[in-house]
Amino acid sequence: MKRDLVTDIKAVHSIKAQTVTATATGVSVDLLGFNSVTAIIALGAATSLDGSNKIVFSLVESDDNSVFTAVDATVAADNIEGSSDYSPQHGVVTIDADAETDDVYKIGYRGKKRYIKVVGTVTGTVSIGVACPVILGHAEETPAVQTV
After folding, report:
1. Phi-psi region of 24 (alpha: psi -120 to 50; beta: other; left: phi over 0)
2. How far apart are CA 133 and CA 118, in angstroms?
3. In the beta sheet, which residues pair with residue 36?
4. Per-residue model confidence as pLDDT tens digits over 98-141
5. Is the dihedral of CA 84, 87, 92, 98 positive or negative?
C-alpha cells in the first residue's frame, strides 16, 4: 500500500500570510495537470467580529486567467465541496464571530475552469491574520513538481 501523499500533491499560495483589513484577492492558481483542488483558509485570532464586521471567503474561476467570475451559486453543488463543520453555503465561508477565528477551513473545487483564486471580502472593520494556500491533488503525472 502506498502511504506517500507528497508526490501526488502540489501546494501553492493564493493569499500569502498577511494581516487583512480590506478585501484580499489572491493570485491565480493554474490547475493544469491536477484533478482535484482544495483551498485552505487559515485564520489568526480576531476580536469585534459580528454581522456588520466580517470577512467572507469564496472562490472565483476563469478559463483564460484574465476574466474571473464567482463560482456560480446555482450550480455550486457541482463545483464546490465543503465540510459540514462550518456549513458553507455555495462555497462561501463567512467569518462573523470571534469564536470562528484562530481556525482552519477548506473549500473543495470540482469545477471545470483552469484557474481559480481565493477572495476574502471584508465588510466593516476587520483585522485578521489570513493565509490561503491551495492544495492541488490527483496529479496526472507523479511525482508532482513543487516549485518555489
Report:
1. beta
2. 9
3. 137
4. 999 999 999 888 888 999 999 999 999 999 999 999 999 988 88
5. negative
Residues 51-68 as b or e (16 or more Cβ within 10 Å = b): eebbbebbbbbeeeeeeb
Three-state secondary structure call for residue 53: strand
Read off the pLDDT of residues 12-29 as tens digits, 9 standing for 90 and up: 999 999 999 999 999 999
CA distances from 47 to 20, 58, 90, 101 (A): 13, 22, 26, 9
The pTM is what?
Answer: 0.88
List, for residues 74-96, the tens digit of each pLDDT value: 555 566 665 444 444 557 889 99
Q: Which CATH number fits domain 6-139: 1.10.287, 3.30.950, 3.40.50, 2.60.120?
A: 2.60.120
Cis peptide before 143 (omega within 30 of 0): yes
Rounded Cα gap, residues 110 and 146, in angstroms: 22
103 is written with which cell numbers?
481556525
- Average confidence (pLDDT) over 8-14: 94
Q: 20 to each of 48, 66, 87, 135, how far by Cα in Å?
A: 14, 24, 23, 21
